[in-house]
Every structure is written in C-alpha cells, then in structure tokens.
Amino acid sequence: MLQRLLIIGGLLAMVVLSGCGGSDSSSTISYEPFDLGAPRSHIRQDVQIKPGPNGLFGPETEPVVPDQPAPEFLISQDLIDGVGNLARVGDTVTVQYVGYLYDSKKKFASSWDENKPFTFTLGKGEVSQGWEEGVFQMEISDRRELIIPPDLAVGGPPKDAPKGETLVYVIDLLAVEEN
C-alpha cells in the first residue's frame, strides 16, 4: 500500500513539475471538456439485432442534447457498445437514425418515419463528413450519438438536412457489407 502511494505521489509530482517550466503561455493547452451527459448502456451483440419486416430494429430513440452552447467540433459517443464487424471505408453500411436540431431540440428526420433503414457506402461522399467520421469504425449493433457542427453537416442525410445548423443524430449500425 505504501509503495503504491509513493508511486502515485511521484507521478503527481512529475505532472506538477512538468507544468512549471518556462513562462511561455503559448505552450499551455486548455480546453473545455464537452460532456454529453448520456449514460452508457449495456453491451449488445450483433445477433441481438433482429430487424422487422421493414428492416428497422426496435423503437425510435431520442438523443441527449446538452444544455450548453453547441460545440464547434464533431462529438461522438457510443450509447450502446456493440459487438460485431467494424464499419470501414469502402464498406456498405445499413443504419437506422433519428436527427434533431441542436438549438431547438426538434426532430427533422427519422428512418422510422421513412419506414426503412438507410444504406450507404462509407467513404464515397454519399453522406456528410460528420456521418463519414462518426460512422467509421462503428461495430454492428453500436448505438452512437453524433453532434455535428454546420461545417461537417453539409450533404445530409437526409438530402434536405437543415443547412447552417448543428445537428444531433442517434445512429444504430444494423449491417456492414465488406466491399
């Protein structure tokens, strides 16, 4: 026990001393952490995803939209950790999703409303850059929330996604077809 305390104390001293270098404030990086505030759920196996006749699985979900200013960068958080194949560039992926506006918290799109999942090829520019980055390396059965700033939200889906808005999506990865 004493040995652990000494090791931890030594590490803390190193951290404190490393921050006491010169007076150049440009070398200090500070940032505000962005806490989505969403509880992480359980792990879900890909075999637990059993889409219905329309190809959708389970009920539509609602995102967690934090009560703080919209981020200027992509936020990605797994709400359910899946166990299945990874989505990689070039793969054809099938997802179900719901999209909300960050500021007004109003829904603007849903694969449930369209009564079908959405399929696209990752890396081909068929979706916004926010979706490309956010869906990359999802596992089948992952549920991920994305908060996408306006500059990464261009291109949908859906094609008529609001422009100039920060968008919030909850995406379930249903299938990955390696190409």
Descriptive notes:
The structure is a single chain. This protein is an alpha+beta fold. The chain has 3 helices and 7 strands, in the order H-E-E-E-E-H-E-H-E-E. Strand 3 and strand 4 (107-110) form a beta hairpin. The longest helix has 17 residues, at 2-18. The N and C termini lie far apart (53 Å).
Task: Summarize this structure as a short list of keywords or feature phrases.
single chain, about 180 residues, alpha+beta, about 15% helix
Task: Break the fold down into its secondary structure elements and pairings.
Blueprint: H1 2-18, E1 43-45, E2 75-83, E3 92-101, E4 107-110, H2 111-114, E5 118-121, H3 129-135, E6 143-148, E7 167-177
Parallel strand pairs: 1-2
Antiparallel strand pairs: 2-6, 3-4, 3-5, 3-7, 6-7
Approximately what portion of the residues adopt beta-strand conformation? 25-35%
Multimeric state: single chain
Q: Mind telling me the C-alpha Rg?
A: 20 Å
Sum up the overall morphology in one term. Answer: globular
The major pleated sheet works out as:
7 strands, mixed
Calculate the terminal CA-CA distance, rounded to whole Å. 53 Å
- Total helical elements: 3
